[in-house]
Design goal:
The protein is α/β, with parallel strands linked by helices and about 180 residues long. It has a single domain, classed as 3-Layer(aba) Sandwich (Glutaredoxin). It is built from 6 helices and 7 strands. It has a 7-stranded mixed sheet.
Length: about 180
C-alpha cells in the first residue's frame, strides 16, 4: 500500500509541475500580444440591454468568460468585480467583462447576469466575435483575465480576485500607467 501511495504522490507532483510549466509557457506567449476588441458590443448596464463601444486608448482590464464549463455557474461570483468597477471609475482604465457563452447557455447566462444586478457594464459576445478576432487566446481560463495597455497589448494576465498579491500588482500597474501612460509594468 505504501508503494501505491508513493506512486500516486509522484504522479500528482508530476502533473502539478507540468501544469505550472504549461501555464508559464502560455503566459510568456500571451504577454505583449495585441488583443483585438470588437468595435461595438451588446451589453447589460444596470440590468438593461444596450450597445456600447469599448474605448480605444485607455487601459482595459478584460475579464473573459468563454463557453467552457457551466457559464451561469461561473457567473455567480460576478459581483466580486464591483471593487474593480469602482476603481475604474476613479482611475483611467475600463473594466470590460465579456461573456461568450455557448448558444445553449445564452438564456441561463442572461438570467444569471440579471440576477446579479451588478453596477458595471457586462458585454454580451453571443456571436463569439471576440474569439473570432483573437483565435489564439489561451485555453487556460486562468489567463482569461488580463490587463491591456493603451495599444491593446497584454501587460498582465491572471485572475486577481482570489489572489491578493496579484490584485495589488494589477492596481500598482494600473495606477502607474494611468498617470504616466508607460508601456511596461
Amino acid at each position: 500500500m505504501k508503494i501505491f501511495t508513493r506512486i500516486v504522490f509522484v504522479l500528482l507532483a508530476f502533473i502539478v509541475v507540468s501544469c505550472k510549466a504549461g501555464i508559464k509557457k502560455d503566459l510568456e506567449k500571451f504577454i505583449g500580444r495585441e488583443v483585438i476588441l470588437p468595435k461595438e458590443m451588446a451589453a447589460f448596464v444596470n440590468g438593461r440591454d444596450t450597445s456600447l463601444t469599448i474605448e480605444g486608448d485607455r487601459l482595459k482590464l478584460i475579464v473573459w468568460y468563454d463557453s467552457t464549463g457551466c457559464s451561469s455557474c461561473r457567473l455567480k461570483d460576478l459581483w466580486q468585480w464591483e471593487d474593480y468597477a469602482e476603481y475604474a471609475d476613479s482611475t483611467d482604465f475600463d473594466l470590460c467583462v465579456i461573456l461568450s457563452p455557448s448558444e445553449a447557455n445564452i438564456h441561463s447566462v442572461n438570467l444569471a447576469v440579471r440576477s446579479q444586478r451588478v453596477q458595471f457594464a457586462v458585454y454580451k459576445d453571443y456571436d463569439r466575435r471576440f474569439y473570432a478576432l483573437n483565435p489564439g487566446m489561451p485555453s487556460n481560463s486562468m489567463l482569461h483575465t488580463f490587463l491591456l495597455d493603451r495599444d491593446n497589448k497584454v501587460v498582465i494576465a491572471g485572475n486577481p480576485i482570489n489572489n491578493p498579491a496579484l490584485a495589488e500588482f494589477y492596481r500598482s500597474v494600473i495606477k502607474s500607467r494611468a498617470t504616466d501612460g508607460t508601456a511596461r509594468p
